[in-house]
Amino acid sequence: MAKRNGSIMKSPTEAFPSSATSSSAKSSARPRSRAGRPAAAHGSDLRERLLDTAVTLFASHGVAETSLNRIAAQLEVTPAMVHYYFNNRASLLDAVVAERLQPVIAAVWEDLSDCDDAAILISRLHERFTDQAHAKPWLPSLWIGEIAHERGQLREIMLRHLPLQQLRHFSGVLTRAQKSGAVHPDLEPGLVFLALIGLTLLPLATRDFWRNLPGLDNVTPARLKRHTAAFLHHGIFSGARS
Known about the structure:
Elements: E1 2-4, E2 7-9, H1 12-15, H2 19-29, H3 46-61, H4 68-75, H5 79-85, H6 89-109, H7 118-135, H8 139-148, H9 155-159, H10 164-179, H11 189-205, H12 207-210, H13 221-237
Antiparallel strand pairs: 1-2
Helix pairs in contact: 3-4, 3-6, 3-8, 4-5, 6-7, 7-11, 7-13, 8-11, 10-11, 11-13
């Protein structure tokens, strides 16, 4: 400020606040957007990409070793972005089962609820599990490590979503086929489905290991599929009463 003729003169900035100052004040008064809210640039598929990233990391590193922060870093987004879609770890795991694993089960069992031929049922289930595993490379390791394993982090959630009606149908078809002499008499019908999953998914989940064994380095997916199909068919139906 300056004195002129005994009076105090205000500087231009004091008398007339700059537009920048006014804009700053207005912007500071605006409500802040919700933390973690996705910008339009991320696209509407960000939640899908988060789930895809989660199942890939779960399969390669295990659920216990995969934090929400790790998922965010892999996708190059902020942890707040992950929390925007999934409030916590439990909600993410529920979403993985509901939106990634249950669709696999639905695709595997589609149109098979009326199939009463044991050989066709076994063949279709094996083929569909194999096709799903090749389409979703994370599936074998995730299923074996996090569902089949007794300490799997997805085991309890998955138990609540098992296709019980389809499993009862499967066991009933095998039981009737066994009584008619079409299925090996020493087999337990209720365990055949577990054997089918194990023979189909375990080799795919462990292929990085057995490829180092003698004579197995050049086993193609097609040869593996053919081998498992033959193993299942001859193991289940060979030795049955003629």
